[in-house]
Write a structure and sequence with these properties.
- It is built from nine helices and nine strands.
- Helix 1 (2-25) packs across helix 3, helix 2 (32-39) crosses helix 3 (43-55) and helix 5 runs antiparallel to helix 9.
- The relative contact order is 0.12.
- By secondary structure, it is of the alpha+beta class.
- The chain is 44% helix and 19% strand.
- It has helices at residues 2-25, 32-39, 43-55, 72-82, 86-102, 144-150, 155-167, 177-190, 235-250; strands spanning 30-31, 59-61, 67-70, 106-112, 115-122, 137-139, 193-196, 203-211, 215-227.
- It has two domains: 2-70, Winged helix-like DNA-binding domain superfamily/Winged helix DNA-binding domain (Arc Repressor Mutant, subunit A); 78-266, GAF domain (Beta-Lactamase).
- Mean pLDDT is 85; it is low at 1-9.
- The chain has a six-stranded antiparallel β-sheet. A three-stranded antiparallel β-sheet has the order 1-3-2.
- A hairpin with a 5-residue loop joins strand 2 (59-61) and strand 3.
Length: 277
């Protein structure tokens, strides 16, 4: 009887987290029927999970309608996480200046095992589409800022990264490793990673941020079209990179990740499906 009760509790908890994850990833507020359909759960089960999450402030009703979006609690948890990194406070004024000079959103992504954690961001005046969330976590190869870190790891680490991704269940052929290696090699040669955004070749850019004793620990990204690859250089981004690295160099130990004591393969975070996007 006790075992049956424990199984029921575990099942209920699983449903609560399934609903929370779906609401957090949705692009618009969701209702009971939509959540039920997407998760393949009875509407009554979904309703109970929603009530639990609403009572604990993890979700809220959208404009008093029977549709739900994230509440204040996840934001508080995100804030608690990012403030554990000293780099967060140091990067904010640097990013603010960078966003003001370029008019584009500037962000800082730190390495967290084999993932990139979006630690800080300042929106630019010309930004009309970039809305990545603070605290967002992705595998390194799946985002511009992440590749701005991955490209500058040593050969051994990049090999270990591939083994990690495949061990986490990436479908066979989902990641074109040869194309990725070519792209990362080009980034190393250029000293930055970029992503072309416009028909005339203007690109967003990510630059590695290094610690004197821990290699690449983060990347600074300008998330809008700011330079032509091969024709010029992102002077404002390079200035921000040097400024942040100079501050880190004054006391490298203070900028260590609060999770540095964990082996990188021990940090496993459930993100979106392990595909090549």
């Amino acid at each position: 009887m006790a075992l049956d009760r424990r199984s029921a509790i575990n099942s209920s908890a699983t449903h609560v987290f399934q609903v929370l994850r779906l609401v957090s990833e949705a692009e618009e507020p969701l209702g009971v029927s939509e959540i039920s359909r997407r998760l393949g759960l009875p509407a009554s089960t979904v309703y109970r999970a929603l009530i639990t999450l609403e009572e604990s402030d993890y979700i809220v009703r959208y404009q008093n309608m029977p549709r739900y979006e994230l509440g204040p609690m996840p934001q508080l948890l995100n804030r608690a996480l990012v403030h554990r990194f000293k780099l967060h406070a140091s990067a904010r004024p640097v990013l603010r200046t960078l966003a003001e000079r370029t008019g584009e959103t500037a962000s800082l992504t730190v390495r967290l095992g084999w993932y990139g954690l979006r630690l800080a961001g300042v929106y630019g005046s010309r930004d009309i589409y970039h809305r990545d969330r603070l605290g967002e976590v992705t595998l390194l190869h799946k985002s511009l800022p992440g590749r701005g870190i991955l490209a500058f790891l040593d050969d051994r680490e990049r090999t270990a990264y591939r083994a990690f991704v495949e061990a986490q269940g990436a479908p066979s052929g989902a990641v074109d490793w040869r194309a990725l290696d070519t792209r990362l090699a080009a980034a190393r040669n250029a000293g930055l990673e970029h992503e072309v955004l416009t028909a005339d070749g203007l690109a967003a850019v990510a630059l590695p941020v290094r610690s004197p004793d821990h290699g690449v620990i983060a990347s600074i990204a300008i998330n809008g079209p700011v330079f032509h690859p091969g024709e010029d250089e992102p002077a404002d981004g390079l200035r921000a990179q040097r400024q942040l690295e100079a501050e880190i160099a004054t006391a490298p130990h203070e900028f260590h990740s609060p999770f540095a004591h964990l082996a990188v393969d021990e940090i496993v975070i459930r993100t979106s499906p392990l595909d090549g996007r």
